[in-house]
Structure formats: structure tokens, C-alpha cells
Amino acid sequence: SSRAAGMAIGSSATMLSLAAAIAEPSVSSVASPVSAFSQVAVKDPWVRATVAQQKATGAFMQLTATQDVKLISATSPAAKMVEIHTMEMDKDVMKMRQVMSLDLPAGKTVELKPGSYHVMLMGLNAQVKEGDVVPLTLTVEGKDKKTQTIEVKAVGKAMNNSAHKMNH
Predict the structure, then answer these.
(1) Mean pLDDT along residues 136-147
(2) Closest Cα to residue 64, out of 105, 109, 14, 103?
(3) Which of 5, 8, 21, 100 is 20 to 30 A from 15 via CA?
């Protein structure tokens, strides 16, 4: 059986499954100790390019899980702190707040996008320029509380629309 250490997800939709990486195809999923792990497809991951001195930005993507799981955390070597955030209207004011987890229902695509759920990178170590690749590690948790990590490479994209500012 081959190991999937160091496997990365590119910009095209890719399925990463710990169960598939460790278990032989002939092993019954019922007998597999990792059968509770879900496959999570990551499509079109990108991060908003920043200007010099900007210390925060957002990462966006589409996530589709084969089983009910929840996104519980994210990390990146590009930032000192990474959180899962949402945007909400509160008395005609758009406010951003951290969420402790984000449900990924089986078979449904959850879009992390500007003005909605996103991965917030704070305390950036360097400016994110258009075309830069920003590595992210997402952690998902199944109903059985077992966790799985997914390596994502988000590409920096410049945004011409300044309507969505990431101020904290």
C-alpha cells in the first residue's frame, strides 16, 4: 500500500482520502479502521492578493464531502493565525466573525466565497501577490470525532472590487 504523505491538492477538483491512501482496494470498508473518514473534494482554491503592509486576507474555495463532516480548523505557514469566518448583516452593517466549525453535508458543495464563509489568514508573513501559491491545511472532523487533514494550494488572485474589506 502506498503512503500519501506530502500529497497536495492542486487547483482542479481532486479527491483526497486517507482511507484510499492507506487501505488496499480489496479491503472491505467495514473492516477498514479508517472507514469513517470522508473524501473531501476541493475545487478552485484561491486567496485574495494583498497590497504591501496588508496583514490579513481571505482564502476561498468549494468543498464537497462524500460523508457528513465539518471543517474545524485551518492553518498556513503564510500567516500567524488562521480562522474560519463568516460575514453577516447586523443592523445594516456587514460584520465578520469567527465560527468554530463549518458543516460540510454529504454530497453538497459548500462554497467559501467573499461576503460569506471564508478562511481568514491574519498576521501575514509576506505580501500575497497575484500568482503566489499559499499552502493551507484544512482539518475536517467526522461524526465519530476522528479528524483528517487536507493539503490545499491556493493561488493568489487580485480583486478589483474593494467592496468587501477584511477589517477586524
Answers:
(1) 94
(2) 109
(3) 100
